[in-house]
Design a protein that fits this description.
- The chain is mainly α.
- Helix 11 (181-195) runs antiparallel to helix 12.
- It is elongated and about 65 Å long.
- 78% of the residues lie in helices and 0% in strands.
Length: 250
């Protein structure tokens, strides 16, 4: 699904100076964090206590992401961000963005927004990293019920991270919810072009078609959502929609 892919992408070393050479402690810690998170948590904690600084804290965050401990991961990334800021290191913005992403996964939109505000205010993010931070802040704002505020961040994300199907999916969903069906149809078309095999995209395509009164297109998209990801929450939602459609006739 799109959300886990985004989270995994953002566990890469944050933007900034060149990554350490293969074989050093940081590279070894990151590798272990992705293979054996429990061991990496112990190792990164010991390294931090020995003066590993923000690199040790970021590695700890990545280990917690791998283990699915989102709040602990967010806390570690925030620690890395503050330590980097204290050292005037430009990687602080990337760490704040990682913290925001992890808080979103933990279900805490308020903390996610605060971390993403810090990431964006710092002014160190550029290009795709900047676009993904705007995308995540839009997600936090939507979760907080601030849909109008989210649109500006989504539009910025579409400019900077236009190859990310999640940006188009969220833009289409927001447009549907606010009654802009023309934009919803256009943006879900872009999401489908980028990720037609994602159940979340097909589910939303069906939702938009249903609102427009196109039952045949809605049925086709919902059936695709069930087919590409059986057993997922999106597939269940699509199945429910299909059952409701069957109950009301063609």
């Amino acid at each position: 699904m799109l959300l886990p892919l985004l989270l995994l992408a953002q566990t890469a070393p944050a933007a900034g100076p060149p990554a350490p050479r293969s074989g050093d402690r940081y590279a070894e810690c990151i590798d272990q964090a992705r293979r054996d998170p429990a061991a990496a948590v112990r190792g990164a904690t010991a390294w931090q206590q020995a003066g590993g600084g923000f690199l040790a804290q970021q590695c700890l965050g990545i280990a917690q992401v791998t283990a699915g401990n989102w709040a602990a991961a967010a806390t570690a990334f925030e620690g890395a961000a503050r330590a980097a800021e204290a050292g005037k290191d430009a990687r602080s913005g990337g760490f704040w963005a990682q913290a925001g992403n992890a808080w979103l996964a933990a279900g805490d939109a308020a903390k996610a927004q605060a971390a993403l505000d810090a990431a964006l205010i710092g002014g160190t993010l550029t290009g795709l990293d900047l676009g993904e931070a705007h995308l995540d802040r839009a997600r936090a704002l939507v979760a907080a019920g601030r849909q109008n505020d989210a649109r500006a961040d989504l539009d910025r994300a579409l400019t900077l991270a236009g190859d990310d199907p999640l940006a188009w999916l969220l833009s289409a969903t927001l447009a549907r919810r606010t009654g802009d069906l023309l934009r919803a149809r256009k943006d879900i078309g872009r999401a489908l072009a980028l990720s037609s095999d994602d159940a979340a995209v097909q589910l939303e395509a069906g939702n938009i078609a249903a609102v427009e009164g196109n039952a045949a297109a809605a049925r086709t998209a919902w059936e695709a959502a069930v087919r590409v990801s059986p057993g997922s929450a999106q597939a269940q939602a699509a199945s429910d929609a299909l059952a409701a459609m069957a109950g009301t006739g063609p």
